[in-house]
């Protein structure tokens, strides 16, 4: 499944601005309605994978925070989320091709970044259904393997030039350095 891009996420919010914005982080588990969007981060990632290939992409991370002890029956409207996004984008233009991640944690759920699996309209709610992000091997994604490639070489081992063999010579001459001779 392809990751949701920032432009598409924002357009879906704009098309549903009158709805209430809910986040479901696992089956029947919801981010408390008292949540705040505390930060929107743009992270430019550059990496070298196990096959030695450079990769680059951008992530847009929407951070949710729930104040301890604060309970509400109704979450924020999508329109309020859009006003926060507008405030952010006045100063920080967000990459429309950036991969959207939602960062959330609570006393019942360890903080992590999750991917929007789907945005679903249910009555007066726009539900962002989240799924865990997964570790991947880009070498496999490119059609290689993580282990050995079709030439038998390991993809996770950098290619090393063949080292020249050096001929060792015995430089010790028995008569030139004897114990007690003072030469050493």
Quick recap:
The protein is α/β, with parallel strands linked by helices. The protein is 15% helix and 35% strand.
Task: Kindly describe this structure.
The protein is α/β, with parallel strands linked by helices and 184 residues long. 15% of the residues lie in helices and 35% in strands. The chain contains three helices and seven strands, in the order αββββαβββα. It has helices at 6-14, 78-91, 138-141, and strands at residues 20-26, 29-30, 36-48, 54-65, 99-106, 109-122, 125-132. Strands 2-1-7-6-5-4-3 form a seven-stranded mixed sheet. A hairpin with a 2-residue loop joins β5 (99-106) and β6. It starts with 5 loop residues before the first helix and ends in a 43-residue tail after the last helix. The model has no long low-confidence stretch (mean pLDDT 85).
Defining key terms:
single chain, 184 residues, alpha/beta, seven-stranded mixed sheet, 3 helices, 7 strands, elongated
């Amino acid at each position: 499944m392809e990751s949701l891009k920032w432009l598409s996420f924002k357009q879906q919010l704009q098309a549903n601005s009158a709805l209430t914005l809910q986040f479901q982080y696992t089956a029947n588990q919801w981010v408390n309605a008292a949540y705040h969007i505390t930060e929107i981060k743009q992270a430019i990632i550059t990496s070298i994978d196990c096959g030695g290939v450079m990769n680059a992409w951008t992530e847009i991370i929407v951070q949710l925070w729930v104040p301890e002890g604060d309970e509400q029956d109704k979450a924020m409207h999508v329109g309020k989320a859009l006003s926060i996004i507008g405030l952010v984008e006045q100063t920080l233009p967000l990459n429309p091709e950036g991969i959207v991640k939602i960062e959330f944690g609570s006393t019942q759920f360890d903080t992590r970044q999750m991917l929007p699996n789907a945005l679903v309209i249910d009555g007066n709610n726009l539900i962002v259904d989240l799924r865990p992000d997964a570790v991947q091997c880009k070498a496999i994604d490119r059609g290689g393997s993580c282990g050995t490639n079709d030439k038998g070489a390991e993809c996770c081992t950098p290619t090393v030039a063949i080292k020249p063999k050096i001929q060792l010579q015995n430089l010790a001459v028995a008569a030139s350095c004897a114990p007690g001779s003072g030469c050493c």
